[in-house]
Write a structure and sequence with these properties.
With about 475 residues, the protein is an alpha+beta fold. Helices cover about 20% and strands about 35% of the residues.
Length: about 475
């Protein structure tokens, strides 16, 4: 018996030695993970647990993990897939451009009950692809950002025009430049107006006749008419001609008409127009100045017709101007104009922006963001990056665990920021793929198409080789 063992050991050792010598004489095409997992290397390599990668030669097929788990078992091959994970398959064995064998996909690898198109991916490949998932959750009402462009203009309620109600000549301009700031009651100009001088003289005569001047008495009456009524009428005429009250008080005290009448600013602001000069003759109603209060300005934004229904007065808005890059100005939507532009299909929206530093000026161009509530209550939402939109339908990939990903068609609602409302197709707590979903979807579509060929009828199944 001992001799027989020695006789057997010699040929086995010789055969093993010759096999290793033959392997050493050949050059491997590549090296594969010893467990049969789809991990490859161009040269010798070790696994994390210090096992050597297995060399694969030209006449040696790649090792399948499923085949390694059940050696000798007959299994029906559905198709062969690309060894590098590319969405490319073949009904028969083939090699890729690097000489690597396509890997067989067996019928028993698909878990019973998986939805059509479900993809199974190894944990290593999931990490390589950078697959990320996130749960579908109930979220508070979404806020949608509506973007538009616009331009600044003066607040129309804070504009003022300075004019006189009588003709005359400008004898002095106290404010002589466009852009000068003015305050309410400030003297802007002095004019000579014969009609105003005549009205003052008329008032003085009526006052003397009525005894209302200092030192006078009511004894000085005339036979015709009531002198008190004449005084009142003269005073009313002065006020109707916009003679300032302080001038009337001066007139009563001094008893002398003044040749020049001052023109004062009706409100705070800056001079935006000054069409007159000293010495000019002016007509009644001719504008001398136009002023604007810049403490608030209007931003007229052009909002697209499809977004108009979500804009309401009182909503917050942020504006950025070319003149102030990186700086944002806050405002409020105040009014939506009642008509649309037929050419651009946009509506004008008035946004009031505080301007305490007076840095904003009329006609400045701006980009606007209006925060509009998109939903009225809590709703189921998923990240918008999880949606694969083909135009005709929207699909998400559901993580079923153990490397399985199921494509599922969904019905979407309103989108706000990075989230989108889901009205059908996903339940609370289900995980959706948010990154690398396009790569998985491509393989899922391919798997679904190939499953259509893998009919239960053996006669209709594609030819395969174990």
């Amino acid at each position: 018996m001992k001799g027989s063992w020695r006789l057997i050991a010699v040929p086995l050792f010789a055969a093993t030695f010759s096999a290793h010598a033959a392997d050493d004489a050949r050059t491997p095409l590549y090296y594969q993970d010893p467990s049969g997992a789809p991990f490859y290397a161009t040269g010798p390599k070790k696994t994390p647990d210090q096992r050597d990668y297995v060399p694969v030669f030209e006449d040696q097929p790649a090792v399948s993990s499923a085949a390694a788990a059940a050696p000798g078992a007959k299994r029906r091959i559905l198709y062969y897939r690309n060894p590098m994970g590319l969405p490319d398959t073949s009904p028969v064995p083939k090699k890729d451009s690097m000489g690597m064998d396509y890997l067989p996909v067996y019928a028993d690898e698909d878990t019973a009950g998986d939805a059509r198109g479900t993809v199974r991916i190894s944990q290593g490949r999931i990490q390589t692809l950078g697959v990320r998932t996130e749960e579908a959750v109930m979220r508070p009402p979404l806020t949608r950002t509506i973007r538009a462009t616009g331009a600044l203009q003066f607040d129309e309620r804070r504009l003022a025009t300075v004019a006189t109600k009588v003709p005359g000549w400008i004898e002095r301009l106290a404010v002589a430049a466009t852009g000068d700031p003015v305050q309410h009651g400030q003297v802007l100009a002095e004019i000579y107006a014969p009609d105003l001088v005549a009205a003052e003289e008329e008032y003085l005569v009526a006052a003397r006749m009525g005894g209302t001047m200092s030192g006078g008495s009511m004894a000085g009456t005339i036979a015709h008419g009531d002198p008190g009524a004449l005084v009142a009428a003269s005073l009313q005429r002065l006020r109707a001609l916009d003679v300032p009250e302080e001038e009337i008080v001066r007139l009563r005290k001094s008893g002398k008409a003044q040749r020049r009448i001052v023109v004062r600013a009706p409100a705070d602001g800056v001079v935006i127009e000054k069409p007159v000069q000293e010495g000019m003759r002016i007509e009644a109603g001719q504008p001398l100045y136009k002023t604007a209060d810049l403490s608030d300005v209007w931003l007229i934004a052009e909002v697209q017709e499809q977004d108009l229904g979500m804009v309401q007065p009182g909503q917050s808005a942020l504006a950025q101007f070319v003149a102030f890059p990186g700086k944002r100005f806050e405002g409020k939507v105040e009014f939506i104009y009642p008509s649309l532009s037929a050419e651009t299909r946009t509506a004008s929206v008035r946004i009031v922006i505080p301007n305490p530093d007076l840095v904003l000026r009329a006609a400045m161009y701006a980009s606007v963001e209006i925060a509009a509530p998109a939903t009225e209550g809590p709703m189921l939402a998923i990240p918008s990056s999880a949606v694969i939109d083909s135009g005709a339908r929207q699909v998400v990939l559901i993580d079923r665990g153990e490397g399985r990903f199921e494509p599922r068609q969904v019905r979407l609602g309103t989108q706000g920021g990075d989230w989108v409302q889901v009205t059908e197709g996903v339940k609370v707590g289900e995980k959706v793929v948010t990154s690398a979903n396009f790569l998985i979807d491509a393989e899922s579509n391919l798997r679904a198409a190939l499953q259509g060929f893998a009919s239960p009828n053996p006669q209709s199944a594609p030819e395969s080789r174990p």
